[in-house]
Amino acid sequence: MEPLKIEFEERDRVSILKLDGYLQGNDELSEKIDGLLEKENCRIVLELSQVHLINSAGLGELVRLAAQANSQGGRLVFANPTPFVEGVLKTTRLDRFFEVHETLETALRTLA
Questions:
Q1: Cα dihedral across residues 31, 44, 51, 9: positive or negative
Q2: What does the DSSP 8-state code read for residue 57?
Q3: Which residues contact 77 (CB under 8 A, 6 or more apart)?
Q4: Of 77, 61, 89, 67, which is closest to residue 4 (Cα–Cα)?
Q5: How far apart are the first and last CA of the chain?
Q6: Do residues 71 and 65 lie in contact, with contact meaning Cβ atoms separated by under 8 Å?
Q7: Partners of 20 in the beta sheet?
């Protein structure tokens, strides 16, 4: 499996992290989001269109990061999940916990 690649972009004071690869427990992703959450009222979009696999460690990390964002007054939303990731979220019923948007543009409008 190829390691997760993370591309960062800032648009209208929203941090966008475009993920590409296999999402498993990832220190680089955690460190990046933990750093972003230090800002007050931080808004983050995880763009998931290139995440074709996710394991339980990756899912657990997303839960932890979303809960941390909520507890710190920030917001972490997902955009454009692949069918596999969307299926995992529905199967685990985490689609009710996470805020998931069909497109990056929709997620950005929600956070504006």
A1: negative
A2: H
A3: 44, 45, 46, 98, 99, 100, 101, 107, 110, 111
A4: 61
A5: 36
A6: no
A7: 5, 50
CATH code of residue 104:
3.30.750.24
Structure tokens at 75: 């917001």
pLDDT band at 3 (very low <50, low <70, confident <90, very high): confident
Containing domain of residue 101, as a range? Answer: 5-111
**Residues sharing a CB contact under 8 Å with residue 57, sequence separation 6 or more, in sequence order:** 24, 25
Within 10 angstroms of residue 79's Cβ, the number of other Cβ atoms is 22
The count of domains in the chain is 1
Q: How many residues does the chain have?
A: 112
80 vs 41, higher pLDDT: 80
For residue 18, is pLDDT > 90? yes
CA 53 – CA 80 distance, rounded (Å): 14
pLDDT of residue 112: 87
